[in-house]
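Risk mitigation, structural track. In case the binding assays with pyridoxal-5'-phosphate fail to produce interpretable data, a predicted complex structure has been prepared as a fallback.
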Amino acid sequence: MESVRAQVDEAAAAASRASTDVAVVAVSKTKPVEAIQPLIDSGHRLFAENRIQEAKAKWPPLKAANSDLRLHLVGGLQTNKMNDALTLFDRIESVDRESLVDALARKRDLGAPLPSLLMQINVGEEPQKGGVPPTEADAFAAWAARERNICFEGVMGVPPVNEDPAPYFAWLRDTRDRLGLSVLSMGMSADFGTAIAFGATHVRIGSALFGERS
Ligand SMILES: *Cc1c(COP(=O)(O)O)cnc(C)c1O
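Fallback model:
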């Protein structure tokens, strides 16, 4: 974490941004608790998983032992896993369709406190990725607010691999600004420096922290 944090701070300084403006979300998917515990012991508090079942197996004891841990969901969410998701996660970064907004609104109307929500946008319009199509992002956010009283705190996106991420990051930043939101979750191990230059408030880093996933 120290080396990644130093690189994040350097990228922030190069962009004339305060290092406190960029949070590192440690993406611990596929990694066992033994790999996560040292980061917690060193004081890191913000993590993410991409699968509900895996998060459910790993995180409840960790959260019970460290009440200030924060866990984000960065993978697809099925509405039938909604109860688990609401119990486990402090932020859902992957809200990307009306049925999910409907399910969240229903839970809220039954009294469940909702976590922070981000709209995931499929910036590269890739069929294998989740996310609202970029052309529909503004209308989706407006619909969620108007029809379901669900407001996003920001946007999340993953540019296509093997392409220059800069135009995608610029578009995500402009979209966040246009919608008047605060959180800009973009940048992973391979491109977080560029993401920070384009204004990322949260970089989601897995392999650079935990090693390659098998
Ligand atoms: C796995 C994952 C990451 C972390 O990827 P690395 O390249 O290992 O840093 C970030 N965001 C999402 C949505 C992911 O699924």
